[in-house]
Design brief:
Elements: H1 3-6, H2 13-17, H3 26-33, H4 37-43, E1 80-86, E2 95-100, E3 103-107, E4 112-113, E5 123-126, H5 129-133, E6 138-142, H6 148-151, H7 154-157, E7 165-167, H8 169-180, E8 190-192, E9 200-203, E10 206-212, E11 221-227, E12 230-234, H9 252-261, E13 263-269, H10 286-295, E14 300-303, H11 309-321, E15 325-329, H12 331-342, H13 356-362, E16 367-371, H14 381-387, E17 400-403, H15 412-424, E18 428-431, H16 435-438, H17 451-461, E19 463-469, H18 473-485, E20 500-504, E21 509-514, E22 519-523, E23 526-527, H19 532-544, E24 546-554, E25 565-569, H20 578-594, H21 603-622, E26 627-635
Helix pairs in contact: 10-11, 17-18, 20-21
The chain binds zinc ion (2 copies).
């Protein structure tokens, strides 16, 4: 691989739609295996995503022309540029940048979990090419709250965004913990802002204020950004919560005051814009816990997200009421609880917490075990308890297992597997989805505002322009509808993609330009070193396996010596596929015969040809496309020992 292609090559959002499919046409199959740097570069050309939404800023016309950015454009001093680099058309890796003249501020540095199409990738972070090119302009990074989809990219992104970081107290604490293990060479400068004091800081052209909102983690905030052309509000993740479990309620009065001052643009959380009504409050879960704790005869093993700190407090309260001791299990659970207790957000009655290994011995059936793994994650505590892999806890009959969360997206199947396993071990299982048949109360509520709440917030803030963020395209579009229902003009609503730049003056907003955007794969400790090519290889290997063809040829004549060796891994069992292997050998021999023997051996070219011919044969016979790796050994057949000369050509 040459130097050019070994550089990080972030995929663009447009590429995701064009990802070659492992079972596609022969052309697709070739492309999947093609080690041609040019082809990879072409695939990475940023495309304009399809957006014919009536809210696309062009009355539903697909934009085809992209104005290229002219440096020091005459009027760029007078316009505010707002661009999301993550979190639009997707769930996760939230990041939005605001640019005015020579100043840029960045809101959130989120990450996103990899899915089954990205084998071996840990998570995904936004492509920040544009910010890196304009590094000198970046004056500050503001974080809305401490969830991974807002801080998970910090360890990779903050070193590239050399600017002070602002956030509420718990948010900054979560962020510091998040970057601890990265051992950054330059420690970021953190500034804690108190939303309850309406504290404000000037960062370049931007005046920043945090406003408290309700969410499933303490100290979640909206960000108010006063700019020379008007005020912008990013809601962060939010829900109304008049009776929060931890801390003061959402500061609706402050948002109304700022609404009275006039708000130019609202960047709003779209997560639940398609869910009718209002978000049920967190405290409504408490009676369910009391009821189920009451019903339990044996141990109670309860699982939720480690980052749902408010839920953790509810579980502590329920355990206290039931007079049970409590142990925390799972690395992230222990870390978050420790932080929450240390900073005084989580309140634990003295003497109630025990180490799990002591608790299971001393307390027996009187224990409550709070653990990670409610999404059925294979390596998380609950799955390991179910399979008997956990060092201290093994599920037994008489255990009550409570999953206080909903399966997210693609996790439905693995949660199903987990519940299967738990029930095989004899546990009584309660899930949010089965409350009707269990006759139990509510076991989960969302941290994000439902449709009616979103509408209410829009009518409180009364923005001139609305840009739905934090959600899929459908969620953004639903949010746009709510905007219209609540008095925002249709032409003032922008459902955009990552990379789109919304340019604003005090009375106008338009979207005509794009900046580079997309996703960077994080693989172990490396950032961006997993390329499309590597991913395609992993997908091919994972789904169809590989076949290695080893041909020994005479160095002088280029003649095939003996029968080619065929090695297969993850494709077919050799012994049971003698016929197929025989056909392959035949095909390989024919390829050698067809080779133009009048010219010097160009083994590189020949290997590509051999690969394609073998691939086509295997596809025709098996409808599968294993990775085919031809290896040609050149030997001097006249030498007595018949040893390969030099390294094999791979
Ligand atoms: Zn959140
Ligand atoms: Zn979020």
């Amino acid at each position: 691989m040459d130097k050019e292609t070994s550089k990080p090559q972030p995929k663009t959002a447009g590429d995701q739609r064009r990802r070659p499919n492992g079972n596609g046409s022969a052309k697709n199959r070739r492309r999947q295996q093609q080690a041609n740097p040019m082809a990879v570069r072409l695939m990475n050309q940023p495309a304009i995503p399809v957006n014919k939404s009536q809210f696309n800023g062009a009355s539903g016309e697909q934009r085809t022309q992209v104005k290229s950015r002219v440096a020091n454009q005459a009027d760029s001093q007078t316009r505010l540029r707002v661009m999301s680099l993550g979190g639009l058309g997707e769930i996760g890796k939230n990041m939005t940048a605001l640019e005015y003249g020579d100043d840029i501020i960045v809101l959130d540095v989120g990450s996103k979990f990899a899915d089954e199409n990205q084998p071996g990738v840990d998570h995904l972070i936004p492509d920040i090419t544009y910010l890196e090119k304009n590094k000198h302009k970046i004056k500050g990074v503001i974080i809305t709250h401490g969830h991974m989809d807002h801080i998970g990219g910090a360890g990779y992104l903050l070193p590239k965004l050399p600017a002070p970081i602002y956030g509420s107290r718990f948010t900054i604490a979560m962020l510091e913990k998040q970057i601890e293990e990265f051992k950054l060479q330059v420690q970021p400068r953190f500034t804690i802002m108190d939303p309850d004091k309406h504290e404000r800081v000037q960062i370049g052209a931007f005046n920043i204020e945090l406003v408290r909102v309700g969410h499933s983690i303490p100290d979640a905030t909206a960000v108010v950004i006063r700019t020379p052309v008007g005020t912008v509000i990013d809601t962060g993740d939010w829900r109304f919560e008049p009776n929060p479990i931890i801390g003061p309620p959402m500061d609706i009065d402050r948002l109304r005051e700022i609404g009275d001052e006039g708000v130019l643009l609202l960047l709003g959380d779209s997560t639940n814009a398609a869910r009718a009504g209002q978000t049920p409050e967190e405290h409504l879960i408490a009676p369910t816990f009391d009821d189920l704790f009451d019903r339990a005869n044996g141990r109670i093993i309860i699982s939720t997200f480690a980052s749902s700190v408010n839920r953790v407090q509810l579980i502590i309260n329920a355990a206290e009421k039931a007079g049970r001791k409590l142990a925390f299990v799972g690395r992230s659970m222990l870390a978050n609880v420790e932080l929450g207790v240390k900073l005084g957000y989580i309140k634990v009655p003295p003497g109630m917490i025990t180490r799990v290994q002591d608790g299971v011995k001393q307390e027996g059936d009187k224990m409550v075990i709070l653990c990670t793994g409610s999404q059925g994650e294979v390596n998380a505590a609950l799955s390991r308890m179910a399979t008997g892999d956990h060092p201290h806890v093994k599920i037994k009959s008489n255990d009550t297992v409570i999953l206080t969360s909903n399966p997210i997206g693609g996790n439905i199947v693995q949660v199903g597997d987990l519940v299967d396993q738990l029930m095989r071990e004899g546990a009584k299982v309660y899930q949010a989805g089965t409350q009707a048949i269990d006759g139990s109360g509510m076991l989960h509520t969302s941290g994000h505002a439902f449709r009616d709440d979103i509408g209410e917030l829009i009518s409180i803030i009364r923005p001139k322009f609305l840009m739905p963020i934090h959600g899929t395209f459908a969620m953004q579009t639903r949010h746009a509808e709510v905007g219209i229902e609540n008095g925002v003009k249709k032409e003032n609503i922008f459902v955009l993609d990552i990379g789109d730049v919304l340019e604003l003056t005090a009375d106008k907003a338009e979207c005509k330009e794009r900046v580079p955007s997309g996703v960077v794969f994080v693989d172990g400790a490396g950032v961006g070193d997993v390329e499309n090519l590597v991913l395609r290889d992993r997908m091919t290997l994972g789904s169809d396996g590989m076949v290695v063809v080893v041909a020994v040829v005479d160095k002088r004549s280029g003649r095939l010596l003996g029968s080619p060796d065929i090695i297969s891994r993850g494709f077919v069992h050799m012994k049971e596929s003698e016929e197929l292997i025989g056909r392959m050998r035949q095909e390989i021999r024919k390829s050698f015969e067809r080779r133009d023997k009048g010219r010097p051996a160009d083994w590189q070219r020949f290997k590509l040809q051999l690969r394609d011919e073998v691939s086509d044969l295997l596809y025709a016979k098996t409808k599968r496309s294993p990775m085919v790796l031809p290896v040609v050994h050149e030997v001097d057949s006249r030498s007595s020992k018949n040893q390969p000369s030099g390294a094999p050509q791979q």
